[in-house]
Amino acid sequence: MSTSWTVRTREALGRTLPADQLLPDRQPVYVASWIYVFGVLTICALLVVLASGAVLAVGGVAWWHVSSLGRYVNSVHLWSVELFFVFMVVHLWGKFWMAAWRGRRALTWMTGVLAFVCSIGTAFTGYLSQSNFDAQWISTQAKDGLNAVGIGAWFNVLNPGQMLLWHVVLLPFVVGVITIVHVVLVRRHGVVPPIDVAPEEQSARREEARR
Amino acid sequence: MGRMVILATAPSSGAYLHWGVINVSWTNLAIIGAMLVLFVLALLLPFPGERP
Predict the structure, then answer these.
(1) What's the whole-model pTM score?
(2) Which residue in A13, A36, A193, B23 has a CA-CA distance of 20 to 30 Å to A160?
(3) How large is the C-alpha radius of gyration of chain B?
(4) What is the CB neighbour count within 10 angstroms for residue A204?
(5) Hey, are the CB atoms on B8 and A133 less than 8 Å from each other?
(6) Would you state the torsion angle of the CA atoms of residues A97, A101, A103, A108, taken in this order, to the nearest 10 degrees?
(7) Which of B8, B39, B49 lies nearest to residue A90, judging by beta carbons?
């Protein structure tokens, strides 16, 4: 074993995630179905969410209320989030009904659950960061529930500065990291096969796809 | 001030379906229905280039 931690890390990464698993150029035949498309559609929508959010951050709060371009980017941000959740929920339904945690994929499933929960938190802080009457209404409605579960002192929905920073820094970072881990796990363990595919057939198809 | 009052009292909360404990706006119900249709279509529609 090498004494260099760089070499050891490179070798461990190479063993854990070989290049042909990270970027495969073939997939099993059962992946040719529209239901397998919704995961990547979710990622595409997330990229539009992040890009439009970055433009909103450049323009600032007044800009997205008073300029026509700002209102347009604000709408792109909203509707890409709507599509993000639609695609993610259809992806969730598809994976739930095909029991996608089979075949040592429990961690993949759990990171998906985490991504879903953190995305809800990110969207919630987004609603609180609109800087309009809607944001005020939602924050006053939410504060009692959050205080009742004891987190109001650390996560104060009546503090728009804190909510904006959670929305544009902390939660997008968490969602981004979980999404990357989720995708790496999918690459590591392969796309889950349909339930009626026999185990030996699954491994044969996976080997065929890897060749 | 007058404008704020008008905004605050504007009747824009939408129509809701009340059915027992279920209370959902018709807009959200339509979106949920559209998602279910999308899910069924994703299962049934043939994928381009699919082999028999």
Answers:
(1) 0.85
(2) B23
(3) 20
(4) 13
(5) yes
(6) 130
(7) B39
Query: Taking the CB of residue B30, how many other CB atoms lie within 10 A of it?
Result: 11
Residue in the structure block whose two tokens are 């339904």:
A93
In the predicted structure, residue A206 carries a pLDDT above the cut 90: no
Q: Which of A54-58, A107-111, A129-133, A191-195 has the lowest mean pLDDT?
A: A191-195
Whether A77 contacts A56, CB under 8 Å: yes
Q: Considering CB atoms only, which of B7, B39, B51 is closest to A133?
A: B7
Q: Give burial (CB, 10 Å; 0-12/13-18/19+) of A166.
A: buried
Task: Quote the CA–CA distance of A102 and A88 in Å, as a whole number.
Answer: 20
Residues A49-53: what's their mean pLDDT?
Answer: 97
Q: Give Rg (Cα) of chain A.
A: 21
Query: Which candidate in A31, A34, A37 is best for mutational testing of the B interface (most B CBs within 10 A)?
Result: A34
- The token pair at A26 is 């073939």
**Assigned token pair, A108:** 């993949």
Residue of A nearest to B41 (CA): A34
Could you give the ipTM of this predicted complex? Answer: 0.80
* Whether B42 and A35 lie within 8 Å, measured CB to CB: yes
